[in-house]
Design a protein that fits this description.
308 residues, alpha/beta, FAD/NAD(P)-binding domain, 2 domains, 5-stranded parallel beta sheet, 19 strands, 31% strand
Length: 308
């Protein structure tokens, strides 16, 4: 039985794993990849220690730090189940080849993060990877000199627009509401860029194409006017859903986020959660990093009390 399992390897999970490894715990970090949503971020300018860094570069530093600390990692595995058992927890994870691993541990830190929210409009599933994408940093370079649309109003959408304006032929941002919801510095950059067109108060209705995307249809919420915008790329940035559906052993709120206290404690002895998968209101890399540290130290205290 492990002392500690850490589920997820973005900012919170990596931070927790560094502290667990330094305490020489019998520990395992389980994750599909290293970096998670951090790796798909564009330019990061608000993480201490880096004036400016790309998300994939930051994820690479995460990996190097884990390796330097000797953290044991099962990479390529997605957690499918977490249940309470006698004296601890059982976690089941599978890889892309459907190979299953079963783990047992005295304590667990859940840091599984979030996944992109979908539009749920006709054509979205059909044209996924054929013009529809949820990762600008992954797929943006494929749309050089093409017309693209960015959907969303938060930081992810703003970062997407700023990246794509350097690559694409034209960039249009469609927003459901009447204003942006991101950081002021990013809003100013987008609104002051003459090559970015912003359309407020519209709802996306349909994505169309043949082999690949050729257009998106949207409706003005105020006038009900429907327009069709010719594009070859649709970049969806309309929010995130917590990766929490693999367990019912932890209290969740209506949004599916794990409910935790200031130390990441879930209310289940030995079970902690950290980062964007929790109900902490502000979803920032620096906050997730701190939460990972807190939950790791709290889990270590719990394990120390078990050994007394």
């Amino acid at each position: 039985m492990f002392d500690l399992l850490i589920l997820g390897a973005s900012a919170a999970g990596v931070s927790a794993a560094v502290y667990g490894a330094r305490r020489k715990l019998n520990m395992k970090l389980i994750s599909v990849d290293i970096g998670g949503e951090v790796a798909t971020s564009g330019v990061v300018e608000n993480y201490p220690g880096h004036v400016l860094i790309n998300g994939d570069e930051l994820a690479g530093i995460f990996r190097k730090q884990l390796e330097a600390q000797g953290a044991a990692i099962d990479e390529g595995f997605m957690v499918t189940s977490l249940t309470k058992i006698n004296k601890g927890f059982k976690v089941i994870a599978k890889n892309l080849s459907d190979v299953e691993q079963i783990y047992e541990s005295k304590a667990v830190i859940i840091a599984t993060g979030v996944k992109p929210r979908k539009l749920d409009v006709p054509g979205e599933e059909e044209f996924y990877h054929r013009g529809v994408t949820y990762c600008t940093i992954c797929d943006g370079p494929l749309y050089k000199n093409k017309d693209v649309v960015i959907l969303g109003s938060g930081n992810s959408a703003l970062e997407s627009a700023l990246m794509m304006v350097e690559i694409a032929k034209s960039v249009t941002v469609l927003i459901r509401g009447d204003k942006f919801k991101g950081e002021t510095v990013l809003i100013d950059k987008v609104q002051n860029n003459a090559r970015i067109t912003v359309v407020f108060n519209v709802v996306s209705q349909k994505i169309s194409g043949e082999q690949c995307v050729t257009s998106i249809e949207y409706r003005n919420k105020l006038t009900s006017e429907v327009k069709t915008l010719p594009v070859q790329g649709v970049f969806v940035n309309v929010g995130y859903i917590p990766n929490s559906d693999f367990t019912d052993a932890v209290p969740k709120n209506a949004e599916g986020q794990f409910v935790v206290d200031r130390l990441g404690y879930t209310g289940v002895p030995g079970l902690y959660a950290a980062g964007d998968v929790t109900d902490i209101p502000y979803k920032q890399i620096s906050i997730a990093t701190g939460m990972g540290t807190l939950s790791a130290l709290a889990a270590i205290d719990y394990l120390n009390r078990l050994s007394v």
